[in-house]
């Protein structure tokens, strides 16, 4: 039986305050394996992922493995993902598994067992989830997260341009789908201190205003899209307004393309962390 963890909002707040808010994605694209002179194989995948862990897990607040790049190698890739998560957590990083799961409630129950049960070999501190089968269908994820001190990042306004056709569609109540998702997430977080376990994914690339007061979420805001997708740390203020304190800015390729040298990865990530801290108004301490 594993010891109960503190609530995710408190753990994330502490980690961001101590290390700075940067999240680095572990996205072992085939092209990146090649540019690191690694084979496009399970061995290459493992070397890549564990090199990122070695370089950054003791330094950044959050590491975010992208499950798809591990799944493409089948069960052997999943075994590498398990090891990556375990070693990153052991080194002190919070792990957000970017797996974007969502289904009918009875099936979500099993996904929640897979990712948010401390006895699972894929246990992570948080997962990304898709609410497009209805926010209510995510209930098993939310319950399990609350039970075990984990977090859930619900896709709201994603960084890709195609997302808008769904997320900015207007519901019968006259609000956008994305805003309706955020309102339900905010209701779930209530007045939790320092923030609740239900986060949202809001892209750092967005240029149209977000039709929701993001500070009212009272939860973490995972902001992918920095670097390779065109988002910049300086642009975060325009996207997130009053909610800057809860933003977890995320970069993958922008950092990873500098590998495989560990000191170089650290130097690039340190610069990115500095840029994000400055943009988000953090003190200069931290990675
Ligand atoms: O809205 C979203 C949600 C998730 N992602 C994920 O983040 C990384 C982005 O990688 P970069 O190399 O920094 O572009 C990737 O794993 C996506 O699946 C996102 O980009 N946007």
UniProtKB/TrEMBL annotation:
<dbReference type="Pfam" id="PF00215">
    <property type="entry name" value="OMPdecase"/>
</dbReference>
<dbReference type="GO" id="GO:0006207">
    <property type="term" value="P:'de novo' pyrimidine nucleobase biosynthetic process"/>
</dbReference>
<keyword id="KW-0210">Decarboxylase</keyword>
<comment type="similarity">
    <text>Belongs to the OMP decarboxylase family. Type 2 subfamily.</text>
</comment>
<dbReference type="InterPro" id="IPR018089">
    <property type="entry name" value="OMPdecase_AS"/>
</dbReference>
<dbReference type="InterPro" id="IPR013785">
    <property type="entry name" value="Aldolase_TIM"/>
</dbReference>
<comment type="pathway">
    <text>Pyrimidine metabolism; UMP biosynthesis via de novo pathway; UMP from orotate: step 2/2.</text>
</comment>
<dbReference type="InterPro" id="IPR011995">
    <property type="entry name" value="OMPdecase_type-2"/>
</dbReference>
<dbReference type="GO" id="GO:0004590">
    <property type="term" value="F:orotidine-5'-phosphate decarboxylase activity"/>
</dbReference>
<dbReference type="InterPro" id="IPR001754">
    <property type="entry name" value="OMPdeCOase_dom"/>
</dbReference>
<feature type="domain" description="Orotidine 5'-phosphate decarboxylase">
    <location>
        <begin position="21"/>
        <end position="268"/>
    </location>
</feature>
<dbReference type="GO" id="GO:0044205">
    <property type="term" value="P:'de novo' UMP biosynthetic process"/>
</dbReference>
<protein>
    <recommendedName>
        <fullName>Orotidine 5'-phosphate decarboxylase</fullName>
        <ecNumber>4.1.1.23</ecNumber>
    </recommendedName>
</protein>
<keyword id="KW-0456">Lyase</keyword>
<feature type="active site" description="Proton donor">
    <location>
        <position position="100"/>
    </location>
</feature>
<keyword id="KW-0665">Pyrimidine biosynthesis</keyword>
<dbReference type="InterPro" id="IPR011060">
    <property type="entry name" value="RibuloseP-bd_barrel"/>
</dbReference>
